[in-house]
Amino acid sequence: MCYCPYCQHQGNISDFTTSAQKEWAKSLVVKEIVESQVEKITQSLRQLEKASSKYMQIRVTGGTISLPISSYNELEVETRITCEGCGLEFAVFGVFTRCPDCAALNFLTVFSKSLELCRKRLAIVTTVRDDEIVSAILQDSISSAVSSFDALGKAVRRVAPGVLTRGKRNLFQDLDALSIALKDTLGRGPDDILGESEWRFMRKMFQVRHVYQHNLGVIDDDAIRKIPELASLRGRIYPLTVDETTAFIEIMSRAGPILLKCIADAERNRSESERKG
User: Fold this and answer.
1) Longest dimension (CA), the chain
2) What are phi and psi of 124, to 5 degrees?
3) pLDDT, tens only, 145-178
4) What gap in Å lies between CA 272 and CA 277, rounded to an integer?
């Protein structure tokens, strides 16, 4: 039995076999059957050849037959994972929640893998001489980190349905809305959970990511309203640096598991309370 890592559909392994894979398997079977039968016929004819007499002679000519195998290329995947539950090694596109073999949840592993990819991007910055390319790598790194955090949040909300029931769908992209939701649910905000300085830095970098995504990196009044310390940069492009981007990735790598544990604990406590009832 297998599970779809994206939608959790359960089915036999054949349900997840692609058309190209089926054609490849079929060609292997046909090749084996046809070539083995031809070999048997050839051996029988060679026996007749040996039994030839001057009255009837049989000559066997030609070589062996070899049928081609249908070929196909597996699509390149984005994330290679070792399941925390059963140890299965597999690969998927983008972000997923469950192992296809044991259905164990692995979204925190994917989150960590995504941030590791950000670190690898940053590692090559020192070898790049073009400032525009460096800027693009830094922008892509903070954007990928935010997207991974958002995907982690969506996965957490699916497996903890009784927690963070209110709020927008992309709650983990809007840190102010997330703060309100956590305080309503847990009785404490992310500044209490993560620490005031780290939470303040996360809010700033989320806003930096927003202006790069939607305003070409230029600090506007909306950004200043949310992050007053950006006021000195009004009308200018935010000067994103390698050190600041690296610090953001590291803070995100700590924030994800901490918030996940808090939400999981809240869901477990809620479930236990309902059972005791």
Assistant:
1) 108
2) -90, -5
3) 999 899 888 888 877 777 777 667 788 888 998 8
4) 8
Check if the beta carbon of residue 114 is closer than 8 Å to that of residue 79: yes
The closest of 147, 114, 112, 118 to 242, measured between CA atoms, is 118
CA distance 108 to 97: 9
Distances, alpha carbon 122 to alpha carbons 74, 92, 139, 273, in Å: 29, 23, 11, 46
> For 52-89, how does the pLDDT look when each residue is reduced to its tens digit (9 = 90+)?
655 555 565 655 666 667 665 555 555 677 777 777 77
Give the sign of the dihedral formed by CA 148, CA 153, CA 154, CA 155.
positive
Closest CA to 163 of 277, 265, 95: 265
SS3 2: strand
Query: In this structure, which amino acid lies at residue 149?
Result: F
Q: With a cut of 70, which residues of the chain have pLDDT below it?
A: 6-8, 45, 48-68, 70-79, 93-98, 104-105, 166-167, 277
Residue in the structure block whose two tokens are 């005031």: 196
Burial (Cβ within 10 Å: 0-12, 13-18, ≥19) of residue 227: buried
Instruction: Work out whether strand 2-3 and strand 10-11 pair parallel, antiparallel, or are unpaired.
Output: antiparallel
**What's the predicted TM-score (pTM) here?**
0.67
